[in-house]
Specification:
By secondary structure, this protein is mainly alpha-helical. It contains 8 helices and no strands.
Length: 156
């Protein structure tokens, strides 16, 4: 948020510009239309409830990002969803709606992302960046790559 406020690129465009500047090939693991389609397929009532919960917790956004950042640094990615559920429950919303959101937006897309990434990994020298919600759990990309025969390790 501080980078954006200072007029600097967020991480995704920064990585893309850096890769392109050094002559690297940049590809997406899924088309934008596919991402939008996933959101469009979420039940409208869930979308509205999520939007209302987001508005009701907007004043906590700075604190939420700080906690998520600390969880990320502590390698506790799985804590993101329970933490978000806690916050929206504190504002009187049903936290289980996040289960639908997480399943549709992250978990279901992971298999497609893995399948798109495998040929890139087979060629070698691939750098793959995805959001943290795609990494953890039995259906996360880390486990999907391991089940595909890859050794996945944390990089310090």
């Amino acid at each position: 948020m501080r980078r954006t406020a200072a007029g600097l690129d967020a991480l995704d465009p920064k990585l893309e510009k850096s890769a392109l500047a050094s002559g690297k090939r940049v590809v997406g693991l899924e088309p934008l239309a596919s991402q939008i389609g996933v959101i469009a397929n979420i039940d409208g009532r869930v979308q509205v409830a999520l939007l209302k919960a987001a508005i009701a917790t907007i004043d906590l956004q700075g604190d939420q990002f700080e906690v998520l950042h600390l969880q990320y640094l502590g390698r506790d990615l799985a804590a993101q969803v329970p933490f978000a559920k806690y916050l929206i429950a504190q504002r009187g919303f049903d936290p289980t709606m996040l289960d639908t959101f997480t399943k549709e937006l992250a978990t279901k897309r992971n298999v497609g992302m893995r399948d798109a990434a495998l040929p890139l990994l087979e060629r070698g020298k691939a750098f793959i960046a995805v959001g943290a919600l795609h990494l953890f759990g039995q259906d996360g990309l880390v486990e999907l790559f391991r089940r595909a025969g890859y050794r996945v390790i944390a990089v310090e």
